[in-house]
Amino acid sequence: MISWPCMLKLDGDDELIYLDSFQKFNLECSELIFTDDDYVIDASGNCYLIKSISGMLDLIANDIRLSIDEVVKLVRAHEFNKVSVCLTKINFLTVSEAIHSLNY
Predict the structure, then answer these.
(1) pLDDT of residue 86
(2) Within 10 Å of residue 68's Cβ, how many Cβ atoms?
(3) What is the pLDDT of residue 85?
(4) DSSP characters over 24-81
(5) Whose CA is closest to 39, among 53, 20, 59, 54?
(6) Are 44 and 24 in contact (CB under 8 A)?
(7) Alpha carbons 8 and 41: distance in angstroms, whole number
(8) How many CA atoms lie within 13 A of 100 on its CB side?
(9) Where are the domains of the chain?
(10) Cα Rg, the chain, nearest whole Å
């Protein structure tokens, strides 16, 4: 079961997109073209592949679970592109905290 909120990670792009619900996922992602390497990371670090099934987007669980260190690296890369935060100050205790930080 998906633990919301989540973040969208597109292959080849450091920008992360905050998703607080499945409805927001569909709203944000309905116009995007996905590759097999794009994925959603939930608040527990679980990764989900994005699939279009009968014209509807769905999230399919895979066996990948990111550690807090891996998620912090993604958030740091995202923030580096915005040039608004000192990267060494970006630390979180949980994946959920890291994802919530994208909402600000």
Answers:
(1) 59
(2) 16
(3) 60
(4) HHHHHHTT----TT-EEEETTSEEEEEEEETTEEEEEEEEEE--HHHHHHHHHHHHHH
(5) 59
(6) no
(7) 6
(8) 10
(9) 6-101
(10) 13
- Stretches where the chain sits below pLDDT 70 are 81-91
Please tell me the distance from the alpha carbon of residue 77 to that of residue 4, in angstroms, as a whole number.
22
- Contact (CB, 8 A) for 50 and 39: yes
At residue 23, the 3 state secondary structure works out as helix
CA max distance for the chain: 44
- Cα 97 from chain centroid (whole Å): 12
Tallying the residues shown for the chain, one arrives at 104
- pLDDT of the residue at 102: 78
Q: For residue 16, what are the β-bridge partners? A: 9
C-beta of residue 57 within 8 angstroms of C-beta of residue 26: yes
Strands of the sheet containing 56-65, edge to edge, are 16-19, 6-9, 39-42, 46-53, 56-65
Residue with structure tokens 């097999």? 36
pTM above 0.90, yes or no: no
The DSSP bridge partners found for residue 39 are 9, 49
